[in-house]
Amino acid sequence: MDAVVAIELRDLRWALVAARHRSLRQAAETLNVRQSTLSRRLRDLEYRLGAILFERTNGGTRPTIAGQEFLETARRIIEETDTAFARLKTRCQGENGRLKIGIYASLSTGNLRATLAEHHRLFPDVDVHTVGGGHERLLGDVAANAIDVAIMTACCPGWDDRKLALWSERVIVAMPAQHPIGDQGVVHWPELSNERILLPHRGPGPELEHLLTTKLHYFGAQRILYQDVCLDRLLSLVSTGYGILLVLEGATGARYDNVVYREVHDDDGPTRLNFTAYWRQANSNPTLVPFLDLLRERYPDLSVDPAGG
After folding, report:
1. If DSSP states are collapsed to H, E and C, what string results for 228-270?
2. What are 100-120's pLDDT values in tens digits?
3. E strand or H helix at 147, and its extent?
4. How does pLDDT run across 37-73, given as a tens digit for each residue?
5. 269 in any annotated domain
6. CB–CB of 273/169 below 8 Å?
7. What pLDDT is stored for residue 204 in this prediction?
8. Is the same domain home to 258 and 229?
9. What are the C-alpha distances in Å from 265 to residues 164, 173, 185, 189?
């Protein structure tokens, strides 16, 4: 059985340069090596292959027929190797690969949508996969490495790993355009006390229910109907007068006939819920780092003292 011939990538590159210049002197100058060094490496390569790769004459150095076949193979090897190394480098830098993000609320407008659009502009080769769910499911997925980061409202006091405070979103009510409580442009919590309230079963629904019952606890039990359907079907129910819908402002990019959006206000202005990013420090997915860097750039944590490191 023939022994395997050990050839370095440098040998292939030098042979290609020699073939391109057809002059060992010019090829050596391009490679910044001595001509004698290049000549010796090529002869050693020929010896190991058992074939003459170059015709050496006073007029220059030209590939033989065997040399041409070898150089075609060498060129493919170098191109494939360079491509593989370049792709591996960009993957290690987070410039390609897959990033899985847990999504808590609608993406029809707002900060998360804008962040994802900017991330795609900067890293078009990263495949972003989104997963919906509530706090418990998404935090469980983060802990199990099923997703890389979860972006949710900030009500997870038991989370003991990494997190980053982000933006806040206003609480919004979607209602039929002719509904009388929307005439003033905003809605105050007590005005919702006699309404049939629709809430999404997933995402912020339970948190919105808690907020609703806290704000209206003096008014007794509220008429809350959970719906396990997507946003457009919820808005369809609103448009028919079946009820009014509590959402966060990221949902207001969705438009539906006969449906209007109004802010829900406390005495001191719009009611808001804060959002936070949650992830594991031990997460080794390189695509996560640039995404987190983008979040920090867009939404810096002002609670951290820069001088304190």
Report:
1. CCCHHHHHHHHHCCCCEEEEEHHHCCCCCCCEEEEEEEECCEE
2. 999 988 888 889 999 999 999
3. none
4. 999 999 999 888 889 999 988 878 899 999 999 999 9
5. yes
6. yes
7. 86
8. yes
9. 26, 10, 11, 7
Q: pLDDT > 70: what percent of the chain?
A: 92
184-211 confidence digits (pLDDT tens): 889 999 999 989 999 988 788 888 998 9
Q: Name the domain boundary from 92, 118, 140.
A: 92
Q: How far apart are CA 147 and CA 27, in angstroms?
A: 51
Can you give the CATH number for the domain in which 269 is found?
Answer: 3.40.190.290
Q: Is residue 74 part of a domain?
A: yes
Residue 45 lies in a domain: yes
pTM, full prediction: 0.69
Q: Are 53 and 42 in contact (CB under 8 A)?
A: yes
Question: What's the domain count of the chain?
Answer: 2
Print the domain residue range for 107.
Answer: 100-274
The tokens of 166 are what? 């982000």
Q: Are residues 61 and 123 in the same domain?
A: no
Residues 151 and 254 in one domain: yes
Neighbouring residues of 80: CB distance < 8 A, sequence distance ≥ 6: none
Tokens 């410039």 sit on residue: 95
DSSP-based three-state secondary structure for 212: helix
